[in-house]
């Protein structure tokens, strides 16, 4: 019988503990975490208890973890974006194969550095591009590559970030400020750019437009205080009221029909704001922490809307839309080919593809929803990525994507950010060449 792969975890937050850690907990015959590094004591203790990690292999920092030498077969790097590069380089030097949470790193030079280091070390560096591993996007890719749509002429791809997710992650949360994380087009859309590259091939050139249009102090209602808990005069009519989101869980009521399930739910995003899930604990977090701030009085500076116009080397044109004001969280897309049009909808509770054939006029509807997905986020992609990573560690030639391939989506994201800021058209071939020289 094949032994399970052993793993160390650097960063026991939402992705490390709740996505990848949960898979290991559910599939101990495939993978087992044997060490953890996490500065937050409660998260570290919880991860250690979940995976039976002894005290000698519980570390406060990633530096301590990797100073102990190679303790396992693979390393999971799920620290915050600004702490991706150094631990990944340390793990590569020790000989680990690595699953690195996306995005690779917050700067272009660091991305190049990581890819080049992995290639020199001859190790697997897989990026957490989970969408490739969903039933929906796998089927979409299969249809496009089969030629059923004919030659792809144009694509519209929309990343519809819900108003409440936008406020949680990109206004109040960890990805609100590019100096503390990365440009939003990278943080949120490197998934989408990876799918476009996978389906259509390399990008030839692009431009981009966007801005922070709404979540600014200039748009604050009269009398709005710094915090939602400080007697806001528009609390009852504000969609971003933190009390409604984190205490009353109003957005969840649209997804979970069972009142008991809602009452007992303390996963993301609530698990991000506090370790104390009592009403008093949540209230304290809102009164003292970043997630109770008014969305108009935060230190956010990332865009809340952006469009990227791409011309692919194949000649196809693509419009990628990203905005943080959607009533419904999910992705929608349209591929127009010479033989058929495909429409897709990728939501929490609905994942479907429609193919409209030009010749016959017939429409085929494909239900790509993988069943209940509460145990695996991103439409089943988290579990799919874990299975693929484990298989690739055992059989490196089967890896669906390499670090070099994942770099393409990041290059497009950085080029789009530069195009938006500098109001220019970026030639990707030249951009790639210049990027490779950043570490020279």
Features:
440 residues, alpha/beta, Rossmann fold, Dihydrodipicolinate Reductase, domain 2, nine-stranded mixed β-sheet, six-stranded parallel β-sheet, 15 helices, 15 strands, 36% helix, globular
Structure report:
- The chain starts with a strand and ends with a helix.
- Strand 11 and strand 12 (340-347) form a beta hairpin.
- 45% of the residues are buried.
- The radius of gyration is 22 Å and the shape is globular.
- The chain is an alpha/beta fold.
- The chain has 3 domains: 5-127, Rossmann fold; 151-215 and 300-337 and 402-439, Dihydrodipicolinate Reductase, domain 2 (2-Layer Sandwich), CATH 3.30.360; 218-292, no CATH class.
- A 9-stranded mixed sheet has the order 14-13-12-11-7-10-9-8-15.
- 36% of the residues lie in helices and 21% in strands.
């Amino acid at each position: 019988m094949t032994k399970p792969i052993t793993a160390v975890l650097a960063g026991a937050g939402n992705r490390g503990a709740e996505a990848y850690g949960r898979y290991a907990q559910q599939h101990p015959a495939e993978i087992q975490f044997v060490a953890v590094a996490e500065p937050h004591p409660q998260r570290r203790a919880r991860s250690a208890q979940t995976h039976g990690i002894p005290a000698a292999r519980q570390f406060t920092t990633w530096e301590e973890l990797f100073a102990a030498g190679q303790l396992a077969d693979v390393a999971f790097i799920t620290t915050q974006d600004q702490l991706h590069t150094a631990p990944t380089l340390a793990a590569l030097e020790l000989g680990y194969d690595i699953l690195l949470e996306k995005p690779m790193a917050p700067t272009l030079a660091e991305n190049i550095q990581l890819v080049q280091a992995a290639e020199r070390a001859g190790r697997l560096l897989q990026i957490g591009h989970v969408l490739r591993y969903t039933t929906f996007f796998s089927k979409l890719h299969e249809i496009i590559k089969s030629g059923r749509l004919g030659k792809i002429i144009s694509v519209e791809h929309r990343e519809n970030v819900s108003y409440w997710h936008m406020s949680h992650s990109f206004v109040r949360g960890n990805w609100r400020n590019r100096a503390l994380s990365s440009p939003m087009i990278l943080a949120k859309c490197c998934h989408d750019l990876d799918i476009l590259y996978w389906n259509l091939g390399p990008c030839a050139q692009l431009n981009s437009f966007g801005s922070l249009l709404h979540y600014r102090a200039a748009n604050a209602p009269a009398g709005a205080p710094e915090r939602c808990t400080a007697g806001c005069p528009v609390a009852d009519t504000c969609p971003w009221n933190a009390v409604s989101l984190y205490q009353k869980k109003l957005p969840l009521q649209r997804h979970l029909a069972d009142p008991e399930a809602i009452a007992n739910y303390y996963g993301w995003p609530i698990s991000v704001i506090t370790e104390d899930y009592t009403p008093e604990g949540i209230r304290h977090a809102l009164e003292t922490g970043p997630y109770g701030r008014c969305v108009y009085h935060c230190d956010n500076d990332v865009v809340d809307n952006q469009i990227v116009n791409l011309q692919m080397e194949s000649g196809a044109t693509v419009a990628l839309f990203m905005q943080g004001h959607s009533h419904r969280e999910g992705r929608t897309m349209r591929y127009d080919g010479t033989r058929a049009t495909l429409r897709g909808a990728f939501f929490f509770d609905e994942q479907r593809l429609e193919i409209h054939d030009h010749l016959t006029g017939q429409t085929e509807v494909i239900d790509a929803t993988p069943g209940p997905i509460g145990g695996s986020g991103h439409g089943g992609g988290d579990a799919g990525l874990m299975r693929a990573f484990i298989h690739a560690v055992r059989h490196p030639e089967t890896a669906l994507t390499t670090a070099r391939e994942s770099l393409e989506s990041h290059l497009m994201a950085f080029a789009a950010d530069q195009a938006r800021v500098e109001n220019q058209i970026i030639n990707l071939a030249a951009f790639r060449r210049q990027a490779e020289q950043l570490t020279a």
